[in-house]
């Protein structure tokens, strides 16, 4: 007599296991997850999800989206001394590297004595001079101007023409200087600061500070000329190549061109188009190192925020 085959082990128990799994009580908030759950990402919208968007301000420190400080504050020097090259750079006349050159040359004096050793430190109350000029350690200032036409980018003009310094004379008690130059007829974004290190980086070609211009030409430009500007060509002082270039006018107005480049050569944008037989009738710089003239009327200025300064420094290092 044949015996019935036994039911496979565990088959009859599956409904019970399923029922038990459905009856599990959700883990209460605050309970430490099991080891298998430790690598799991929190659900979208959960309390532990990190905020999106720009960096946020918590207390006295800026934090990035990754939760790490965007800028590590320097510990205060207990004796109040600062490095001599930093003191010189903080006066706004040069970068720290250039200050080292001045120190090594023996033209820097501290309290009447020549100091030529790199790494020397001074107190804020010390009398530091380069030649006969006394330096002053100042608070760093950053001022953005939407430059109008017919202003010279210089501190003084022998022909008594209007300079950009007249437009920012009330912006800072410290002495600030323009970073780079814009032609008298060129308008747009112009930065002023007494930060010698930042000025050096933004004007030196090796750091690749981006500039974006809106160019108005006297006649429509040919597409083949845009291609040559994009691919690169030779000028009298060397090879030049735009990072980006395209038509910028509405309704495909070929008299207007947008061009982005890193070069800081003198009158480089005008020379590029003059090389192909075009006259630049209007030139406006709309972006410089990530800074734009948005919400800033022509001839008006404003101070950069701390976040803008940090973003600017990060973009050119």
CATH topology of the largest domain: Pseudouridine synthase
What is the CA-CA span between the terminal residues?
90 Å
Strand % is 15-25%
CATH superfamily membership of the largest domain: Pseudouridine synthase
DSSP, total strands: 19
Please indicate the count of domains.
2
Helical content (DSSP H or I, runs of 4+): 10-25%
Report the major sheet: 9 strands, mixed
Average pLDDT rating? 79
Number of helices: 7
Pattern of helices and strands: HEEEHHEEEEEEEEHEHEEEEHEEEH
- Low-confidence parts, pLDDT < 50 over ≥5 residues? 8-76
CATH class of the largest domain: Alpha Beta
What value does the Rg take, in angstroms? 31 Å
Overall 3D shape? elongated
Class based on secondary structure composition and strand pairing: alpha+beta
CATH architecture term of the largest domain = 2-Layer Sandwich
